[in-house]
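step=encode ok
step=design start
structure_in=
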């Protein structure tokens, strides 16, 4: 455990009992704006760590259990494109971007109480503390939603917390290998959302560091979700750093998900000329998941000009998965008719049959007849 993280958790458990003159404290019941969850509100000019200490001391004096929630808001990064986002207690994430849903899930967690935010949809972060082990047992974050389900423990609401204080505390959790990887992964996700200058350097460092692969993959994924050229260029730099096949494949996925339009050009270069065969195949696959005529043309060119039958076949499959289904089906029919490689023609016929295009039946009849 690094010194900064140990010091933060030590403060939570050992700082002296709060001077209530600096705080406004109120209890919120089931009829309040926070719904079923009973949260004590702590506001005032105290720092985040001081409020954690206040909450820990109040909890110890009022409850016999060992776990309690701390909830707060922080300043979000500009340009986030989520319709909504949930980072769940088990490390799973559920999101929607531009109406398209994405699930990076290990299964939802059911039950508990409901915390309802007042007014418009907002962002709220919840940390489940264990007073006995002086550690964070779970992290839950919601963006652009009005309510969140939580396990049934007492809670404390801090209101708006300074972004730097939140960022530094969560960075300490990621550094602390005594916390479960699920907690550290969730912290990585939430750190990527902070409007903080150190966010992209921190994630880049985690990708290239000697950390468990799950944490490196999480950092690569969330780096690809950050809008702007700085995060894209960080992904390119990491990909070119020869970090090994497994993490390269995760970086390819993140590049494919990035909003920067240069991603198609980069994936095309990887698909056509990268020295790593597995990386080429991954780039081909994700080109097939990207909309637009340009990616169709790239896949068609690989099928026509690449020397390896296996690479050609991967491109045929990627073509069959393309969002522009009608144009992709047209290309597959042309490949099945005219490609000089018999194996590639067979693959085109097979994947065309899986697409469900109504014209495929007539095409197959024509091929069989001739």
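sequence_out=
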């Amino acid at each position: 455990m690094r010194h900064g993280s140990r010091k933060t958790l030590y403060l939570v458990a050992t700082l002296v009992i709060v001077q209530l003159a600096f705080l406004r404290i109120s209890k919120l019941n089931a009829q309040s704006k926070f719904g079923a969850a009973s949260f004590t509100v702590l506001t005032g000019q105290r720092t985040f760590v001081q409020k954690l200490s206040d909450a820990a001391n109040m909890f110890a004096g009022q409850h016999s259990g060992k776990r309690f929630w701390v909830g707060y808001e922080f300043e979000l990064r500009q340009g986030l494109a989520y319709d909504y986002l949930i980072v769940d207690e088990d490390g799973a994430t559920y999101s929607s971007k531009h109406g398209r849903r994405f699930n990076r899930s290990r299964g939802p967690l059911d039950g508990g109480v409901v915390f309802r935010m007042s007014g418009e949809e907002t962002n709220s972060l919840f940390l489940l503390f264990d007073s006995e082990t002086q550690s964070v047992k779970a992290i839950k974050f919601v963006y652009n939603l009005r309510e969140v389900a939580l396990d049934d423990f007492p809670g404390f609401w801090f209101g708006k917390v300074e972004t730097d204080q939140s960022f530094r505390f969560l960075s300490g959790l990621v550094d602390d290998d005594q916390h479960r990887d699920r907690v550290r992964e969730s912290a990585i996700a939430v750190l990527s959302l902070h409007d903080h200058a150190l966010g992209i350097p921190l994630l880049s460092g985690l990708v290239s560091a000697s950390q468990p692969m799950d944490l490196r993959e999480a950092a690569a994924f969330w780096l690809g979700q950050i809008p702007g050229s700085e995060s894209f260029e960080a992904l390119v730099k990491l990909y070119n750093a020869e970090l090994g096949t497994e993490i390269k494949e995760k970086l390819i996925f993140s590049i494919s998900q990035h909003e920067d339009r240069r991603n198609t050009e980069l994936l095309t270069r990887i698909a056509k000329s990268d020295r790593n065969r597995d990386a080429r195949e991954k780039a081909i696959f994700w080109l097939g998941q990207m909309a637009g005529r340009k990616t169709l043309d790239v896949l068609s060119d690989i099928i026509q000009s690449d020397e390896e039958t296996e690479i050609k076949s991967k491109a045929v499959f990627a073509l069959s998965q393309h969002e522009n289904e009608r144009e992709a089906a047209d290309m597959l029919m042309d490949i099945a008719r005219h490609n000089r490689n018999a194996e590639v023609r067979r693959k085109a016929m097979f994947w065309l049959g899986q697409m469900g295009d109504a014209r495929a039946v007539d095409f197959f009849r024509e091929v069989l007849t001739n």
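step=design ok
step=annotate ok -> DSSP finds 15 helices and eleven strands in the chain.
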